[in-house]
Design brief:
The protein is an alpha+beta fold. The protein has 2 domains: 82 residues; 237 residues, BirA Bifunctional Protein, domain 2 (2-Layer Sandwich), CATH 3.30.930.10. The strands form 2 sheets. A 7-stranded mixed β-sheet has the order 1-5-6-10-9-8-7, sandwiched between helices. The protein has a 3-stranded antiparallel β-sheet with strand order 2-4-3. Strand 7 and strand 8 form a beta hairpin. The radius of gyration is 22 Å and the shape is globular. The relative contact order is 0.11.
Length: 349
Protein backbone atom coordinates (compact mmCIF):
# COMPACT_ATOMS: atom_id res chain seq x y z
CA UNK A 1 0.00 0.00 0.00
CA UNK A 2 2.87 2.38 0.77
CA UNK A 3 4.45 1.65 -2.64
CA UNK A 4 1.18 2.51 -4.38
CA UNK A 5 1.06 5.78 -2.42
CA UNK A 6 4.61 6.64 -3.50
CA UNK A 7 3.70 6.08 -7.15
CA UNK A 8 0.58 8.19 -6.77
CA UNK A 9 2.56 10.99 -5.10
CA UNK A 10 5.12 10.88 -7.93
CA UNK A 11 2.31 11.36 -10.43
CA UNK A 12 0.81 14.25 -8.43
CA UNK A 13 4.24 15.88 -8.15
CA UNK A 14 4.81 15.72 -11.92
CA UNK A 15 1.31 17.06 -12.64
CA UNK A 16 1.93 19.95 -10.25
CA UNK A 17 5.23 20.82 -11.95
CA UNK A 18 3.53 20.83 -15.37
CA UNK A 19 0.70 23.05 -14.11
CA UNK A 20 3.11 25.39 -12.29
CA UNK A 21 5.07 25.93 -15.51
CA UNK A 22 1.83 27.01 -17.20
CA UNK A 23 0.82 29.40 -14.40
CA UNK A 24 2.02 32.81 -15.52
CA UNK A 25 -0.13 35.13 -13.39
CA UNK A 26 -0.94 35.69 -9.71
CA UNK A 27 -4.52 34.55 -10.28
CA UNK A 28 -3.30 31.33 -11.90
CA UNK A 29 -1.03 30.65 -8.92
CA UNK A 30 -3.93 31.33 -6.56
CA UNK A 31 -6.10 28.83 -8.43
CA UNK A 32 -3.27 26.29 -8.31
CA UNK A 33 -2.89 26.76 -4.53
CA UNK A 34 -6.65 26.26 -4.13
CA UNK A 35 -6.54 23.10 -6.25
CA UNK A 36 -3.89 21.49 -4.05
CA UNK A 37 -4.74 22.85 -0.59
CA UNK A 38 -8.47 23.61 -0.41
CA UNK A 39 -10.01 21.88 2.61
CA UNK A 40 -12.65 19.79 0.83
CA UNK A 41 -11.21 18.98 -2.61
CA UNK A 42 -7.53 19.90 -2.42
CA UNK A 43 -5.33 17.11 -3.80
CA UNK A 44 -2.81 17.31 -0.94
CA UNK A 45 -5.61 17.72 1.61
CA UNK A 46 -7.28 14.53 0.35
CA UNK A 47 -3.99 12.63 0.57
CA UNK A 48 -3.59 13.74 4.19
CA UNK A 49 -7.16 12.64 4.90
CA UNK A 50 -6.41 9.17 3.51
CA UNK A 51 -3.59 8.58 6.02
CA UNK A 52 -6.14 7.22 8.47
CA UNK A 53 -6.68 4.29 6.07
CA UNK A 54 -3.13 3.03 6.73
CA UNK A 55 -2.42 0.62 9.53
CA UNK A 56 -0.41 1.99 12.50
CA UNK A 57 2.78 0.28 11.35
CA UNK A 58 2.93 2.03 7.95
CA UNK A 59 1.12 5.27 8.81
CA UNK A 60 4.29 7.19 9.89
CA UNK A 61 6.06 6.33 6.62
CA UNK A 62 2.97 7.26 4.61
CA UNK A 63 2.65 10.53 6.52
CA UNK A 64 6.29 11.33 5.80
CA UNK A 65 5.73 10.84 2.05
CA UNK A 66 2.61 13.04 1.97
CA UNK A 67 4.20 15.76 4.11
CA UNK A 68 7.23 15.80 1.81
CA UNK A 69 4.88 16.40 -1.13
CA UNK A 70 3.05 19.09 0.87
CA UNK A 71 6.27 20.97 1.62
CA UNK A 72 7.47 20.59 -1.98
CA UNK A 73 4.26 22.09 -3.39
CA UNK A 74 4.22 24.91 -0.82
CA UNK A 75 7.87 25.80 -1.44
CA UNK A 76 7.51 25.85 -5.22
CA UNK A 77 4.35 27.98 -5.00
CA UNK A 78 6.10 30.37 -2.60
CA UNK A 79 9.09 30.70 -4.96
CA UNK A 80 6.82 31.32 -7.96
CA UNK A 81 4.83 33.97 -6.08
CA UNK A 82 8.01 35.76 -4.97
CA UNK A 83 9.36 35.67 -8.52
CA UNK A 84 6.17 37.23 -9.87
CA UNK A 85 6.09 39.89 -7.16
CA UNK A 86 9.67 40.94 -8.02
CA UNK A 87 8.96 41.25 -11.75
CA UNK A 88 9.74 44.84 -12.91
CA UNK A 89 6.71 47.06 -13.46
CA UNK A 90 6.12 48.84 -16.73
CA UNK A 91 8.63 51.70 -17.19
CA UNK A 92 5.99 54.30 -17.85
CA UNK A 93 2.30 54.75 -18.53
CA UNK A 94 0.92 57.29 -20.97
CA UNK A 95 -2.22 58.52 -19.23
CA UNK A 96 -3.19 60.62 -22.24
CA UNK A 97 -4.16 57.49 -24.19
CA UNK A 98 -7.92 56.97 -24.48
CA UNK A 99 -9.52 54.23 -22.42
CA UNK A 100 -10.18 50.96 -24.20
CA UNK A 101 -11.71 47.65 -23.24
CA UNK A 102 -9.08 44.93 -23.04
CA UNK A 103 -10.68 41.50 -23.57
CA UNK A 104 -9.73 38.80 -21.11
CA UNK A 105 -8.88 35.37 -22.47
CA UNK A 106 -10.52 32.15 -21.31
CA UNK A 107 -9.40 28.58 -20.97
CA UNK A 108 -10.64 26.72 -24.03
CA UNK A 109 -13.60 24.42 -23.51
CA UNK A 110 -11.58 21.31 -24.44
CA UNK A 111 -8.93 22.21 -21.85
CA UNK A 112 -11.66 22.77 -19.26
CA UNK A 113 -13.22 19.34 -19.94
CA UNK A 114 -9.85 17.56 -19.89
CA UNK A 115 -8.85 19.23 -16.62
CA UNK A 116 -12.19 18.35 -15.01
CA UNK A 117 -11.83 14.69 -16.03
CA UNK A 118 -8.25 14.61 -14.74
CA UNK A 119 -9.29 16.15 -11.41
CA UNK A 120 -11.98 13.51 -10.87
CA UNK A 121 -9.55 10.66 -11.40
CA UNK A 122 -6.76 12.31 -9.38
CA UNK A 123 -9.21 12.44 -6.48
CA UNK A 124 -9.85 8.72 -7.03
CA UNK A 125 -6.14 8.00 -6.59
CA UNK A 126 -5.06 7.79 -10.23
CA UNK A 127 -1.79 9.24 -11.50
CA UNK A 128 -1.46 11.05 -14.84
CA UNK A 129 0.83 9.45 -17.43
CA UNK A 130 1.89 11.02 -20.72
CA UNK A 131 3.74 9.72 -23.77
CA UNK A 132 4.97 10.65 -27.26
CA UNK A 133 2.58 11.46 -30.10
CA UNK A 134 4.92 9.84 -32.64
CA UNK A 135 4.75 6.13 -31.80
CA UNK A 136 6.08 2.77 -32.93
CA UNK A 137 3.71 0.22 -34.42
CA UNK A 138 4.61 -2.11 -31.55
CA UNK A 139 3.33 0.24 -28.85
CA UNK A 140 0.34 1.47 -30.87
CA UNK A 141 -0.84 -1.83 -32.34
CA UNK A 142 1.17 -5.02 -31.75
CA UNK A 143 1.36 -4.88 -27.95
CA UNK A 144 -2.36 -4.06 -27.86
CA UNK A 145 -3.25 -7.31 -29.62
CA UNK A 146 -4.04 -5.83 -33.05
CA UNK A 147 -3.43 -8.55 -35.63
CA UNK A 148 -0.77 -7.88 -38.28
CA UNK A 149 -3.39 -7.25 -40.97
CA UNK A 150 -5.96 -5.47 -38.80
CA UNK A 151 -7.71 -2.67 -40.80
CA UNK A 152 -6.59 -0.02 -38.28
CA UNK A 153 -2.99 -0.54 -39.43
CA UNK A 154 -3.88 0.43 -43.01
CA UNK A 155 -2.54 3.76 -44.27
CA UNK A 156 -6.11 4.76 -45.09
CA UNK A 157 -6.84 4.86 -41.34
CA UNK A 158 -3.49 5.82 -39.82
CA UNK A 159 -0.94 8.58 -40.49
CA UNK A 160 2.43 6.99 -41.37
CA UNK A 161 5.71 8.93 -41.43
CA UNK A 162 7.44 8.99 -44.80
CA UNK A 163 10.91 7.47 -44.56
CA UNK A 164 10.20 5.90 -41.16
CA UNK A 165 8.20 2.72 -41.88
CA UNK A 166 7.92 1.69 -38.20
CA UNK A 167 6.68 5.06 -36.92
CA UNK A 168 3.17 6.52 -36.98
CA UNK A 169 1.13 9.28 -35.38
CA UNK A 170 -0.60 7.54 -32.47
CA UNK A 171 -4.26 6.68 -33.07
CA UNK A 172 -5.15 6.55 -29.35
CA UNK A 173 -3.42 7.14 -26.01
CA UNK A 174 -3.33 3.39 -25.26
CA UNK A 175 0.40 3.20 -26.15
CA UNK A 176 1.02 5.32 -23.05
CA UNK A 177 -0.48 2.45 -21.04
CA UNK A 178 1.82 -0.03 -22.79
CA UNK A 179 4.90 2.06 -22.05
CA UNK A 180 3.81 2.45 -18.42
CA UNK A 181 3.21 -1.29 -17.95
CA UNK A 182 6.61 -2.09 -19.46
CA UNK A 183 8.38 0.21 -16.99
CA UNK A 184 6.24 -0.04 -13.82
CA UNK A 185 5.31 -3.22 -11.96
CA UNK A 186 1.72 -3.64 -10.74
CA UNK A 187 -0.29 -2.26 -9.07
CA UNK A 188 -0.89 0.36 -11.77
CA UNK A 189 -3.52 3.10 -11.64
CA UNK A 190 -3.21 5.80 -14.33
CA UNK A 191 -5.10 8.01 -16.75
CA UNK A 192 -3.43 9.09 -19.99
CA UNK A 193 -4.76 12.27 -21.63
CA UNK A 194 -3.48 13.56 -24.95
CA UNK A 195 -3.84 14.40 -28.63
CA UNK A 196 -4.39 11.57 -31.15
CA UNK A 197 -4.58 11.31 -34.95
CA UNK A 198 -6.72 9.35 -37.41
CA UNK A 199 -7.39 9.84 -41.12
CA UNK A 200 -11.03 10.84 -40.60
CA UNK A 201 -12.91 13.26 -42.80
CA UNK A 202 -13.76 16.56 -41.13
CA UNK A 203 -17.48 16.69 -40.36
CA UNK A 204 -19.84 17.40 -37.48
CA UNK A 205 -18.63 14.43 -35.42
CA UNK A 206 -15.14 13.59 -36.77
CA UNK A 207 -11.74 15.26 -36.99
CA UNK A 208 -8.28 13.95 -38.02
CA UNK A 209 -6.90 15.42 -34.77
CA UNK A 210 -8.77 15.06 -31.49
CA UNK A 211 -8.20 14.39 -27.78
CA UNK A 212 -8.65 11.36 -25.55
CA UNK A 213 -8.45 10.44 -21.90
CA UNK A 214 -7.85 6.74 -21.24
CA UNK A 215 -7.62 4.93 -17.92
CA UNK A 216 -5.90 1.75 -16.74
CA UNK A 217 -5.96 -0.16 -13.46
CA UNK A 218 -3.94 -3.35 -12.92
CA UNK A 219 -3.83 -5.21 -9.60
CA UNK A 220 -4.65 -8.54 -7.99
CA UNK A 221 -8.32 -9.56 -7.97
CA UNK A 222 -9.68 -6.80 -10.23
CA UNK A 223 -13.07 -7.68 -11.76
CA UNK A 224 -15.67 -6.12 -14.04
CA UNK A 225 -17.56 -4.88 -10.98
CA UNK A 226 -14.59 -2.61 -10.15
CA UNK A 227 -14.81 -1.17 -13.66
CA UNK A 228 -18.55 -0.55 -13.32
CA UNK A 229 -18.14 1.13 -9.94
CA UNK A 230 -15.33 3.37 -11.22
CA UNK A 231 -17.25 4.52 -14.29
CA UNK A 232 -20.43 5.06 -12.29
CA UNK A 233 -18.57 7.29 -9.83
CA UNK A 234 -16.97 9.25 -12.68
CA UNK A 235 -20.27 9.69 -14.55
CA UNK A 236 -22.23 10.82 -11.51
CA UNK A 237 -19.47 13.26 -10.52
CA UNK A 238 -19.13 14.72 -14.01
CA UNK A 239 -22.71 14.71 -15.30
CA UNK A 240 -24.77 14.70 -12.10
CA UNK A 241 -25.92 12.32 -9.33
CA UNK A 242 -29.10 11.19 -11.12
CA UNK A 243 -27.24 9.69 -14.09
CA UNK A 244 -27.78 5.98 -14.83
CA UNK A 245 -25.34 3.76 -16.74
CA UNK A 246 -25.91 1.12 -19.38
CA UNK A 247 -23.21 -1.33 -20.52
CA UNK A 248 -23.54 -2.80 -24.04
CA UNK A 249 -21.38 -5.73 -25.22
CA UNK A 250 -18.77 -4.65 -27.76
CA UNK A 251 -15.39 -5.70 -29.18
CA UNK A 252 -11.92 -4.21 -28.81
CA UNK A 253 -8.72 -6.21 -29.55
CA UNK A 254 -7.13 -5.17 -26.25
CA UNK A 255 -9.99 -5.96 -23.84
CA UNK A 256 -12.11 -9.06 -23.15
CA UNK A 257 -14.94 -8.78 -22.28
CA UNK A 258 -15.53 -5.32 -23.76
CA UNK A 259 -18.41 -2.89 -23.39
CA UNK A 260 -19.64 0.43 -24.72
CA UNK A 261 -20.96 2.62 -21.91
CA UNK A 262 -24.04 4.83 -22.20
CA UNK A 263 -25.45 7.30 -19.71
CA UNK A 264 -29.08 8.29 -19.36
CA UNK A 265 -29.86 11.65 -20.94
CA UNK A 266 -29.38 14.29 -18.26
CA UNK A 267 -31.48 16.85 -20.13
CA UNK A 268 -34.78 15.03 -20.63
CA UNK A 269 -34.32 12.40 -17.91
CA UNK A 270 -34.19 9.59 -20.48
CA UNK A 271 -32.82 6.11 -20.13
CA UNK A 272 -36.34 4.75 -19.92
CA UNK A 273 -38.76 4.88 -22.82
CA UNK A 274 -41.42 6.41 -20.60
CA UNK A 275 -39.35 9.50 -19.85
CA UNK A 276 -37.27 10.14 -22.99
CA UNK A 277 -38.44 13.15 -25.02
CA UNK A 278 -38.61 12.76 -28.85
CA UNK A 279 -37.55 16.38 -29.38
CA UNK A 280 -34.63 16.31 -26.90
CA UNK A 281 -31.68 18.13 -28.51
CA UNK A 282 -29.17 15.95 -26.63
CA UNK A 283 -30.37 12.34 -27.07
CA UNK A 284 -32.90 12.91 -29.91
CA UNK A 285 -35.44 10.71 -28.19
CA UNK A 286 -33.27 7.64 -27.54
CA UNK A 287 -32.88 8.40 -23.82
CA UNK A 288 -29.23 7.27 -23.85
CA UNK A 289 -25.87 8.86 -24.72
CA UNK A 290 -22.74 6.83 -25.58
CA UNK A 291 -19.75 8.26 -23.71
CA UNK A 292 -16.89 5.74 -23.78
CA UNK A 293 -15.55 2.25 -24.45
CA UNK A 294 -14.22 -0.06 -21.76
CA UNK A 295 -13.38 -3.62 -20.78
CA UNK A 296 -11.12 -5.99 -18.89
CA UNK A 297 -7.52 -5.92 -20.12
CA UNK A 298 -6.92 -8.84 -22.49
CA UNK A 299 -4.56 -11.48 -21.01
CA UNK A 300 -2.38 -11.29 -24.13
CA UNK A 301 -1.84 -7.57 -23.60
CA UNK A 302 -0.64 -8.32 -20.06
CA UNK A 303 1.73 -11.00 -21.39
CA UNK A 304 3.06 -8.55 -24.00
CA UNK A 305 3.93 -6.21 -21.12
CA UNK A 306 5.57 -8.96 -19.06
CA UNK A 307 2.71 -9.10 -16.52
CA UNK A 308 1.41 -12.53 -15.44
CA UNK A 309 -2.35 -12.71 -16.23
CA UNK A 310 -2.68 -15.59 -13.75
CA UNK A 311 -1.66 -13.22 -10.95
CA UNK A 312 -2.93 -9.84 -12.12
CA UNK A 313 -6.02 -8.55 -13.89
CA UNK A 314 -7.27 -5.10 -14.71
CA UNK A 315 -9.59 -2.87 -16.64
CA UNK A 316 -9.20 -0.07 -19.17
CA UNK A 317 -11.47 2.61 -20.57
CA UNK A 318 -11.21 5.50 -23.00
CA UNK A 319 -13.25 8.55 -23.90
CA UNK A 320 -13.02 11.35 -26.46
CA UNK A 321 -12.77 14.79 -24.85
CA UNK A 322 -14.57 16.37 -27.80
CA UNK A 323 -17.44 13.91 -27.53
CA UNK A 324 -17.80 14.55 -23.81
CA UNK A 325 -17.90 18.30 -24.51
CA UNK A 326 -20.54 17.88 -27.25
CA UNK A 327 -22.71 15.78 -24.94
CA UNK A 328 -22.41 17.93 -21.83
CA UNK A 329 -23.15 21.23 -23.56
CA UNK A 330 -25.44 20.05 -26.37
CA UNK A 331 -23.07 21.22 -29.14
CA UNK A 332 -24.21 19.95 -32.53
CA UNK A 333 -20.99 20.31 -34.56
CA UNK A 334 -17.47 19.38 -33.43
CA UNK A 335 -15.95 21.91 -35.86
CA UNK A 336 -17.21 24.71 -33.64
CA UNK A 337 -14.61 23.66 -31.06
CA UNK A 338 -11.75 24.42 -33.48
CA UNK A 339 -12.89 27.57 -35.30
CA UNK A 340 -11.77 30.01 -32.56
CA UNK A 341 -14.96 32.01 -32.91
CA UNK A 342 -15.07 34.28 -29.84
CA UNK A 343 -18.87 34.38 -29.99
CA UNK A 344 -18.82 30.62 -29.36
CA UNK A 345 -15.83 30.40 -27.01
CA UNK A 346 -17.06 33.20 -24.75
CA UNK A 347 -20.01 31.02 -23.65
CA UNK A 348 -17.64 28.81 -21.66
CA UNK A 349 -15.24 29.87 -18.96
Amino acid sequence: MIDALRREIAGVRQSFIDELNDSQSPSALSQLREKYFSRKRGIVSLLLERLKEFDPATRPAAGKEVNALKEFVRQRLREAEEKQSQAPAAASVDYSLPEFAFPFGRIHLLSQIRAEIEDIFLNMGYAIARGPEIESEFHNFTALNFAEYHPARDEQDTFLLEGFPELILRTHTSPVQIRYMLTHPPPIKIVSPGRVYRKDEVDATHSPVFHQVEGLLIDRGISFSHLKGTLELFSKTFFGPDIRLRFRPSYFPFTEPSAEVDISCFLCGGGQSATAQPDCRICHGSGWLEILGSGMVHPQVLRNCRIDPETYSGFAFGMGVERIALIKYGISDMRMLYENDLRFNSQFG
